[in-house]
Amino acid sequence: MAASMWSGYLTFGLISMPVRLFSGARGEHVSFHMLHRDDNTRIKQQLYCPHDDRVVERSEIVKGYEYRKGEYVIIEPEEIKKIEPRTAKAMEILEFVKASDVDPIYFESSYYLIPEEAGRRPYALLARALEESEYVALAKLTMHNREYTVFVRPYKGGMMLHTMYYKEEVRTVDGFGRPEVELKEAEVKVAHQLIEALAGKFEPEKFHDTFEENVKELIKAHLEGKEVTPVEKPKKMAPVVDLMAALKESLAQMPKKPPQPVEREQKESEVKTANKRASRRKPAA
Question: In order of start, what are the domains of the chain with their CATH numbers?
Fold first, then answer.
């Protein structure tokens, strides 16, 4: 099993359970090294002190907060540990809310919340209660030198934890929102049809990082001494003049979706019912 990101106690009321956090997702990408173009030697990054005009070791580095231009307060690691809040080892549930009340813009990172052996029973109890009540938990948690508000939700019989941004960290942009324009009901109707034509189940395995795959193909081509085929770039599109015409043309280009399983079963059931009724109407021979 991968190394845990945090271990401690999850508490609600007088109930406490030992738990661990494991990373739920992480980005993957092809990484490159910085090389000297002349001889392909890997470049080393060094810590340089311009005052002493020399390279310094990491053991000589301290953390400092700039309170005035060029002036710093020095903070030692031991001092940071002294002021860690209780949430560094205890994650206390503050309240329960409906998941729909929390906007996804607040979500930051995802973790699997897994109980230690001694916490399996209360963990199972909380996971089931959350699932049946359709509530999620909000709690406080300290890790990586920061205290987070966290969102705990039931997931496949267990519980997932998501760290969240604070209100002051969520940015606003002037002018954001629905433009004040007049829309025709016919345009809205066709837009709904276009959405339905593209609608489907969420299947994350269908989606891939095309650029990442192209980078791997580029590396492979270099190793094999082959030419790289350029990717065809999209043509520059002109602004839409006739919105309704563009909507209808888009809808006409959509591939026809096969009937969904539920729809097929319903139609087959209707046909069977109609056949039974027709057979009942036939006069006896």
Answer: 6-26+83-168 (2.40.290.10)
